[in-house]
Amino acid sequence: MPLTPEQEAEIEDLRAAPKPTLRAVSEGAEAHLYKVHPVLDHGFVRMVDYMGDDSAICQAARVSYGRGTKSVSNDEGLIRYLMRHWHSTPFEMCELKLHVKLPVFVARQWIRHRTANVNEYSARYSILDREFYIPRAEDLAAQSAQNNQGRGDVLNPEESARVLQWLREDAMRSYDHYEAMISDTSPEGEGQQGLARELARMNLPANIYTQWYWKVDLHNLFHFLRLRADAHAQYEIRVYADAICEMVKDWVPMAYRAFEDYRLGGVTLSTMAVECLRRMLVGEEVTQETSGMSAREWREFQGVLKKHD
Amino acid sequence: MPLTPEQEAEIEDLRAAPKPTLRAVSEGAEAHLYKVHPVLDHGFVRMVDYMGDDSAICQAARVSYGRGTKSVSNDEGLIRYLMRHWHSTPFEMCELKLHVKLPVFVARQWIRHRTANVNEYSARYSILDREFYIPRAEDLAAQSAQNNQGRGDVLNPEESARVLQWLREDAMRSYDHYEAMISDTSPEGEGQQGLARELARMNLPANIYTQWYWKVDLHNLFHFLRLRADAHAQYEIRVYADAICEMVKDWVPMAYRAFEDYRLGGVTLSTMAVECLRRMLVGEEVTQETSGMSAREWREFQGVLKKHD
Amino acid sequence: MPLTPEQEAEIEDLRAAPKPTLRAVSEGAEAHLYKVHPVLDHGFVRMVDYMGDDSAICQAARVSYGRGTKSVSNDEGLIRYLMRHWHSTPFEMCELKLHVKLPVFVARQWIRHRTANVNEYSARYSILDREFYIPRAEDLAAQSAQNNQGRGDVLNPEESARVLQWLREDAMRSYDHYEAMISDTSPEGEGQQGLARELARMNLPANIYTQWYWKVDLHNLFHFLRLRADAHAQYEIRVYADAICEMVKDWVPMAYRAFEDYRLGGVTLSTMAVECLRRMLVGEEVTQETSGMSAREWREFQGVLKKHD
Amino acid sequence: MPLTPEQEAEIEDLRAAPKPTLRAVSEGAEAHLYKVHPVLDHGFVRMVDYMGDDSAICQAARVSYGRGTKSVSNDEGLIRYLMRHWHSTPFEMCELKLHVKLPVFVARQWIRHRTANVNEYSARYSILDREFYIPRAEDLAAQSAQNNQGRGDVLNPEESARVLQWLREDAMRSYDHYEAMISDTSPEGEGQQGLARELARMNLPANIYTQWYWKVDLHNLFHFLRLRADAHAQYEIRVYADAICEMVKDWVPMAYRAFEDYRLGGVTLSTMAVECLRRMLVGEEVTQETSGMSAREWREFQGVLKKHD
């Protein structure tokens, strides 16, 4: 259970007290505010604040005095045009603030997206909780044979059981020692000084949970989601991206639809691939040999053309 | 008058329709929303949206589940601590969106602050209005003799009159030609094709007004204000910075007070200056010769010590 | 002529004195260093410094101890893989520093690319030269009827002559007054104070030339080039992008080829477009009506499929 | 020993083959290139590339055609002026690329400095080495009683021995299990699939070493060094900052001296502190009560005035 009753109560308090505002309000986002969306075994994503809505994108694109909206269909057309032609600045005019609880190894991937603001729970200052990500057996996959950085088949039950036992035991033992090191009591019950927290944390494995506030504009969020909600992303970060997608869909529904059509579901083709397509569309037979592509590129190209057949 | 009656009406509409929100609300900011704060002869600053308030800074610093506030005095203490010790990330958790109308030469200085989001009115797409910044006579100053990039005394009336006449006439003539070039009618009243707007704009001088939406987080806004609300900044950008200071003071009063105390009114002293101070405080007489500073640094140092005497 | 004999001599001096270095050296880049590549009537681009080469991209991608190169073909394969899969960080490990002279209205577009370092010639501090961009008659195009922000047909000779005369006369008159305003002599030959430069510059039109040092990493440079070397970019910035492309081609030839194949010549297709393609490739007749696309999107899609037929 | 003989040989090869270049060359930086500067027990910093030198800062500040140098003393004066007045863009014109080996918990602090380019060794792709940071006994300090995020006294020998044993044993056991999980052989010697590396890494504690290429401009590097070479920074990152300071001192000696004088050794005083100083300098007795400062601020202020007495 990720939240204590006190934390639940705090969230209820916040949701119980709407206040009037003159700012752009997104009904879809209001429904999400502060609520915990569980992710993995102990993690979550919560929307803490947002700025702007679909019409704020149009308002900025038009540099207008009022709401910027002409008509709903007109707005959607403009948003789709902006997305299709990579006009990114109007999307930067919306902003999202999230509270995320996530394993450290996921946090290390996430933080590579530098165009965002972050406040992480400080382990120099505070004591981390005894919470570790232990995968479900069905998520324990073997190293992929094809893809050097991906996963292959699910492990068989014995191997899987062995892995889970190590993960659990090592996490518990590391945390026991972490606690013992920062304690003012020695294992024999005598007083001790207690190791500095900034040092003791080094004993904790990368599946321990951390937390942060993460704030990002919509353009950079879409970039993050395109990479991390993708089938090639590591499962443990993808589930966070998926949870965020659900929020964004409700917050800025027009922008999200355009994002789905032109980015998430879109594909980028190389000069060679476009040339092949043109030949294929006039009836020419094209093979890898006559395509000018490498074997790997050809395979990827075939994947684009045949998907869902 | 910067606004048309239609624009005034649009703004009134926006201010007349508060909606409920669960987000952090700053009463001080709500009072500013959408209103026009005139700057220079035709310019303005308007607050279009904001995210967060003083307690959102504390909430992020504490990575808390609820509002993050413990007590008001506690919050102010935390904010002052964060400002004093250059912990900038909690301030990045607040965001401000402004609509600004400003002369192009001011826009060119402003845009050097890169950590912000901008949507500018497009002169490739739209036709610019006939509005130019013409300084008041009392703002027409001579080149400074001391400071290579500053201003000295106010021009005498004759010189000033000459300057103003040139500025006005050149602006009007350039705009006449701009209009004539993009028109579908020639000066003789015959049809013409009309030059592309993206080309015609090159004839317009740098005192023409442009507009943009500008969005920035509070940390970067403070950085902008420290440089641009400073006595060394060009007057024409300083008046915009001053207008923004008034808004920020009402939006996040605790953070603004800390900013005033530790940044705006604060000074940075070099190793040599600190060493001199220590000697002076124990009664030693220190001169430029014995200070280790250059003449210019010594003058600046004296300015710090003697100000307001 | 963009350079004075003194400037030419300074450049010759720099090119005459190679020094030994242990850093990665790109022969192709060395041939460009400091040389002036003229652009438009008075502008130029010069490469002032560079960091890294093709193998530095691989070295960073592999986090290797030595040069990082395994074999030339292996390096090219890796670079193409990184480009195809949007792994941008290795390209960020190369850096280019340019000295550019360009009209102010081009500089205003250029500066919107924020992820770069800029030092511009200061018109608060220094006096701008009497150099203005005056287009060639064949570059004077009418506003496009189809595309709201583009150009259509070239103006006819009479209209063109009218435009050129206005541009030339307004530029000269504005500059005459700029000089007169900052001068210590009045038009009547008497002494005057001389208006501050930071004010006088406001009278200068947007086709005056400015200069800057611009430094950018290769990933962000590619992003700039993709947008600005594109057919939809304004001609006056595209010629700068084209000149930079020639330098990059010589500096990092493998990376540039990958950029050409996957970005410059590549296309991004939406979910609907990919779906249509799949149907077309199995022989189905698809029309705009059955495509799910808007008229405009369908036209763009047809453009991709039929180009060069 | 951080390097294998093969790695040492690669470095020797790189250092043995100087090539001619026309770019700015810093003799001080050349002496460092590729060499390993050991930090902590298994870490290091190596300079992999640099762009620019002291005169490149002046060249950019002056937007000059040639080297930009007028005279050495003139250059140093300009650099000091730029530093003192927070003109940061000329310093951004120099760039440094480092190869760093560092414990994961240090990497997590380091990466918060977002304005830099990073390529980290991928633990999804590759297998991490069995190398862990184990502090020296004299670096094992207790949690500070005064400062919530700092260290106090060194632990006594018994407590210290206990901590070191836990750190060593937990690291070895976690790594044994990491190896066993990714292996294609089970503990009983039978075949197994081998857990995906991206999952197995979650068992490794934060004192394991990772590596990255890190590239940053000089302005942002100075910001990093000011925060991380500071007495309040955690010891384990400070030793990296110190090692980098030694390199920067040799690479751009003038800029480094200005940085030392105005940033590293400088102090920022608040409005209240400056006011107190003025009163004290005219002989007034000022106490915390009459200063307007909180107890903590007053203590910090006293520290500035009395240091080194």
TrEMBL record, chains A, B, C, D:
<dbReference type="GO" id="GO:0006231">
    <property type="term" value="P:dTMP biosynthetic process"/>
</dbReference>
<feature type="binding site">
    <location>
        <position position="228"/>
    </location>
    <ligand>
        <name>dUMP</name>
    </ligand>
</feature>
<comment type="similarity">
    <text>Belongs to the thymidylate synthase ThyX family.</text>
</comment>
<comment type="subunit">
    <text>Homotetramer.</text>
</comment>
<comment type="function">
    <text>Catalyzes the reductive methylation of 2'-deoxyuridine-5'-monophosphate (dUMP) to 2'-deoxythymidine-5'-monophosphate (dTMP) while utilizing 5,10-methylenetetrahydrofolate (mTHF) as the methyl donor, and NADPH and FADH(2) as the reductant.</text>
</comment>
<dbReference type="Pfam" id="PF02511">
    <property type="entry name" value="Thy1"/>
</dbReference>
<feature type="binding site" description="in other chain">
    <location>
        <position position="201"/>
    </location>
    <ligand>
        <name>dUMP</name>
    </ligand>
</feature>
<keyword id="KW-0274">FAD</keyword>
<dbReference type="GO" id="GO:0050660">
    <property type="term" value="F:flavin adenine dinucleotide binding"/>
</dbReference>
<comment type="pathway">
    <text>Pyrimidine metabolism; dTTP biosynthesis.</text>
</comment>
<keyword id="KW-0285">Flavoprotein</keyword>
<keyword id="KW-0808">Transferase</keyword>
<feature type="binding site" description="in other chain">
    <location>
        <begin position="120"/>
        <end position="124"/>
    </location>
    <ligand>
        <name>dUMP</name>
    </ligand>
</feature>
<dbReference type="GO" id="GO:0032259">
    <property type="term" value="P:methylation"/>
</dbReference>
<feature type="binding site">
    <location>
        <position position="120"/>
    </location>
    <ligand>
        <name>FAD</name>
    </ligand>
</feature>
<keyword id="KW-0521">NADP</keyword>
<feature type="binding site">
    <location>
        <position position="89"/>
    </location>
    <ligand>
        <name>FAD</name>
    </ligand>
</feature>
<feature type="binding site">
    <location>
        <position position="223"/>
    </location>
    <ligand>
        <name>FAD</name>
    </ligand>
</feature>
<dbReference type="InterPro" id="IPR036098">
    <property type="entry name" value="Thymidylate_synthase_ThyX_sf"/>
</dbReference>
<dbReference type="GO" id="GO:0070402">
    <property type="term" value="F:NADPH binding"/>
</dbReference>
<dbReference type="InterPro" id="IPR003669">
    <property type="entry name" value="Thymidylate_synthase_ThyX"/>
</dbReference>
<keyword id="KW-0489">Methyltransferase</keyword>
<dbReference type="GO" id="GO:0006235">
    <property type="term" value="P:dTTP biosynthetic process"/>
</dbReference>
<dbReference type="GO" id="GO:0004799">
    <property type="term" value="F:thymidylate synthase activity"/>
</dbReference>
<feature type="binding site">
    <location>
        <begin position="109"/>
        <end position="112"/>
    </location>
    <ligand>
        <name>dUMP</name>
    </ligand>
</feature>
<keyword id="KW-0545">Nucleotide biosynthesis</keyword>
<dbReference type="GO" id="GO:0050797">
    <property type="term" value="F:thymidylate synthase (FAD) activity"/>
</dbReference>
<feature type="binding site">
    <location>
        <begin position="112"/>
        <end position="114"/>
    </location>
    <ligand>
        <name>FAD</name>
    </ligand>
</feature>
<feature type="binding site">
    <location>
        <begin position="217"/>
        <end position="219"/>
    </location>
    <ligand>
        <name>FAD</name>
    </ligand>
</feature>
<feature type="active site" description="Involved in ionization of N3 of dUMP, leading to its activation">
    <location>
        <position position="228"/>
    </location>
</feature>
<protein>
    <recommendedName>
        <fullName>Flavin-dependent thymidylate synthase</fullName>
        <ecNumber>2.1.1.148</ecNumber>
    </recommendedName>
</protein>
